[in-house]
Amino acid sequence: MQEWTLLCAPARSKYRLNQIFLRDHIVWWFTLDLAMKKKTILVTAASRGLGFSVAQSLVKEGATVIICSRTEKSLQEAVESLGPSSKYVIADVSKPEDILTLVEQVSDSTSHLDGLFVNAGGPPPGEFSDISDSEWRESFELTLMSAVRLTREFLPLLKKSKDASILYSTSISVKQPIPNLLLSNALRPAVIGMMRTLADEIGPDGIRVNAICPGYIQTDRVTQLFEASTDSSLKANLISQIPLGRIGSPNEFGAVCTFLLSPIASYIHGALLLVDGGLYRGMM
Ligand SMILES: NC(=O)c1ccc[n+]([C@@H]2O[C@H](COP(=O)([O-])OP(=O)(O)OC[C@H]3O[C@@H](n4cnc5c(N)ncnc54)[C@H](OP(=O)(O)O)[C@@H]3O)[C@@H](O)[C@H]2O)c1
């Protein structure tokens, strides 16, 4: 089977004409062209899981990606799997000094940034009575201040792009609290408050901001969550509450994020989108 893609002129056209030879048949079909070629996107916390799925989907659409996380070995493996249009920087997004290093290294490799996917590790689980002041402070740095600093430090590079976009990865917890995840329930809504305010403040500069809110997506973190639980019916109970009847796949999450970061989503600004198989039941 041989496959190639014909791009409809002009370069920013919205559809690709695809052709496959399948034995003695020729199959033609159109796919949406997300116009991501020549775009450079920074995806944080992306050696595994949701961030990696976003990087994979962006590369598939022709973008160049820069990923970061704390562990060099997993970053090397990720970049090996993503291919030549990817590079990595070691950075812990909860540390201000690491964000400055990240800015320096990204600025050395690109004159502008077309997209920023803001992601970090999750805050630890726990109920109100379990959580100490130091855990509150660490989670504040990890969940809110990482988003604040990444936005502040990368705005100059984003302003140099014609189609810049920031996408904050949060959680369904911004719409309804998740039991035993108080820190996520309390701190992630602050990211949404910042995003909605930035929509007014940096929209006039042509920079779009949006948030994506995953429900349950099958990453290592979610697998570990089920394995660590003493409740053997946890997964089945959860799935029974999801109208689509399954946990989401990382590819499904990555594809939606790539769309939101792409110029095709050029009039989506200040929005919050759930990727949860219908788990959230609220009407707003
Ligand atoms: N998966 C879901 O269904 C789901 C749903 C709602 C919300 N979320 C949230 O989405 C985020 C990602 O979840 P995931 O499922 O993709 O987790 P994951 O599979 O554990 O992957 C986490 C990734 O983030 C990196 N990372 C962790 N802490 C970091 C830090 N401080 N600085 C830089 N990189 C860091 C990890 O690499 P290193 O460890 O090497 O740094 C890894 O690449 C978490 O905040 C999680 O709470 C996930």
Write a structural description:
This protein has 284 residues and is an alpha/beta fold. The chain folds into two domains: 1-33; 35-275, 3-Layer(aba) Sandwich (Rossmann fold), CATH 3.40.50.720. The chain contains eight helices and ten strands. It has a seven-stranded parallel β-sheet, with helices on both faces. Strand 2 and strand 3 form a beta hairpin. Helix 3 runs parallel beside helix 4. It starts with a strand and ends in a 9-residue tail after the last strand. The mean pLDDT is 94. The chain binds NADP nicotinamide-adenine-dinucleotide phosphate. NADP nicotinamide-adenine-dinucleotide phosphate is lined by residues 45-51, 68-71, 74, 92-94, 119-122, 142, 169, 171, 214, 216-217, 219-222.
Keywords:
284 residues; alpha/beta; 3-stranded antiparallel beta sheet; 2 domains; binds NADP nicotinamide-adenine-dinucleotide phosphate; 7-stranded parallel beta sheet
The CATH topology name of the largest domain reads Rossmann fold
Largest sheet: 7 strands, parallel
Would you count the extended β strands for me? Answer: 10
Distinct bound molecules: NADP nicotinamide-adenine-dinucleotide phosphate
Shape: globular
Q: What's the CATH architecture of the largest domain? A: 3-Layer(aba) Sandwich
State the secondary-structure class: alpha/beta
User: Span from first to last CA?
Assistant: 47 Å
Uncertain stretches of 5 or more adjacent residues: none
Question: Strand share of the residues?
Answer: 15-25%
Helix content: 25-40%
Major sheet strand order = 6-5-4-7-8-9-10
Mean pLDDT metric? 94
